[in-house]
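Quarterly update, task 2.4: glutamic acid-bound model.
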Amino acid sequence: MTKRHVRLFAVAASAALVLSACGGDGDTDADAGDDGTTAAEDGGDAGEGGADGSIRIGIKFDQPGLGLRDGDTYSGLDVEMAKGVAEKLGYSEDQIEWVESPSPQRETMLETGQVDLIFATYSITDSRKERVSFAGPYFIAGQGLLVRADDDSINGPEDMEGKILCSVAGSTPAQRVADEYPGVELQEYNTYSECLPALLSGTIDAITTDDTILAGYAAQEQYAGQLKLAGEPFSEERYGVGTAKGSELCEQVNEAITALIDDGAWEQAVTDTLGPADYTPGPGNPPEVNEDCA
Ligand code: GLU
């Protein structure tokens, strides 16, 4: 297992990230600039987007550093990658319609055409590939554990026997715990942010999901000194861009991700978004874009 350098409590000087109320109404981004506007004509099947020439992109709304909605503002690595890819597909920022895509609903949202693309800490897996196609990967994270800062009893998944763990239904971390750690009592919610109050109050013992997500929560100013990541990452989560199965957009997204990695935009986005939580990407990053869009 690779070592990730996730240091907690080094909260960056950036403004405090405040969790939004997770409304699911898919507001559009109101403050987009015009400078990146390019024609969408070269986008091939860019017409898969909204009728008004927009593209609907599914993200998380409650994951600081990855996908976070704060009023009309959207931030995080997934948001930055989505904006960069959309621009290369011919969509300006104000043509992006951001739609909340909670983990349990991602495949369905692509299958039913509610979104064109999903950038939502969405791990590429064989079982998901039966229903959707993936471009990417554009980042590699690992499963971790978030515990109360004063809890030294949990240092890895093997310490979770008899403890209560919180995760999200339909996520790879929840599935892994269910499959590999049957002695753990798993509580599953719709979003990870719903686990946080339960952890702080002592109702649960730990939250498990990707270390990127957990580092983002731990670094929030309102939790300073109260939470820590325990142990080392114990999986490889390859973040892909979800498209409808067989969508022609998928190959274009692969090309766009490769270009963003090559021209330095990926590195800038990672520094800007994960840096405030003092998260340093582990080995394998930036990844080789090798999904076949099958
Ligand atoms: N990357 C994992 C997954 O796709 C966990 C994070 C999430 O639920 O978005 O299931």
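Highlight for this quarter: The first helix runs from residue 77 to 89.
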